[in-house]
Amino acid sequence: MPTKLVIDTDPGVDDAFAIALAALSDDVELLGVTTVFGNVGLPATTHNARRVLALCERDDVPVAAGAARPLVHPQWRQARPVHGDDGLSGRAHLLPEPRRDDEDIDAVSLLARLLAESREPVTIAAIGPLTNIATLLAAHPGAAERIARVVVMGGALGHGNSTAAAEFNIFSDPEAAHRVLTGGEISCVLVPMDLTYRCAVSADWLATLGARGPVGAALEALTPAYLAHYRKALGRNAMALHDAVAVAEAISPGMLRTESVPVSVETSLGPARGATVVDRRRPQVRAETEEPGQDRPTVAVAMDTDLDELRAFLLRRLAGQPA
């Protein structure tokens, strides 16, 4: 049975690869795409999402714009130095113009509608700031029981990328991330940047994708600014496809090896703001330091994967090969 999937996203180069991955996979029923502020402003992220769907000839997929800012504090910074001023290395104009307008309802309303209409629980791939998802849980409490799981690209076990402590998506709205990851309302998988950095693809991988067909060539053409950043971040001619790794897990559960542990999100205004604190102590040790009866919700944190198989999976799917 196809995976029923909604993507909540802030495109973003790696988001573009992630949307295409789902849109081109014949074992996915892509119910909708919702957009959020993040890598660039909301108008650009929404237009970018619609352009990528047009590239994949998926005019059937509705797109709705969501939050333009975080829940509480202003967004600290966008990711223009990484993704370019338009979010796609300054090359968004190379993608086809969307043939379908965005929906006349907001992202949270679309999410609630899609969940209510689905006969089976729906997976949400949340690959931007978690503002829309936190708002959904607050405004539509019954929606949680319609969600199979939320696969979140975000967080860091070691150092961050927006700050020394925090990864970009979580840092963009820590209060929203706190609600989603620690509330215990939904089953969550957290795909941290520690793993997505290890899953980076080489320039040769990109060239192979570009030679596989027009969609692959169009995606490769979006990468110059992004690839230039990751040459500095990784120290080699490669780039991280963070969000595509999370969507791969959403499509194929178990592709990433996870560990169920409590996760906290730092919401102070200090230097650790946005940090994800993953408690990997043995349960017996945790129990000794917690109040009797306290049962903190756990999150399935992705720790490892077969790197070669993951890259091959991404290449096959983005080239349009059948599942």
Automatic annotation (TrEMBL):
Its GO CC terms are: cytosol
Instruction: Identify the residues that the record assigns to the Inosine/uridine-preferring nucleoside hydrolase domain, covering every copy.
Output: 5-310
Which InterPro entries would you find in this protein's record? Answer: Inosine/uridine_hydrolase_dom, IUNH, Ribo_hydro-like
Q: Which keywords describe this protein according to UniProt? A: Glycosidase, Hydrolase
The keyword Hydrolase belongs to this UniProt entry's keyword annotation: yes
EC code(s) of this entry: 3.2.-.-
Which PANTHER family has this protein been placed in? INOSINE-URIDINE PREFERRING NUCLEOSIDE HYDROLASE (PTHR12304), URIDINE NUCLEOSIDASE (PTHR12304:SF4)
Region called Disordered, residue ranges: 275-296
Record keyword Hydrolase present:
yes
Entries under Pfam families matching the protein: IU_nuc_hydro
Where in the sequence does UniProt note compositional bias of the Basic and acidic residues kind? 278-289
Question: What is one process in the GO biological process aspect for this record?
Answer: purine nucleoside catabolic process
Tell me the GO molecular function terms: purine nucleosidase activity
Q: What is the lineage of its organism?
A: Bacteria, Bacillati, Actinomycetota, Actinomycetes, Pseudonocardiales
Q: Which domain of life is it from?
A: Bacteria
Protein's recorded name: Pyrimidine-specific ribonucleoside hydrolase
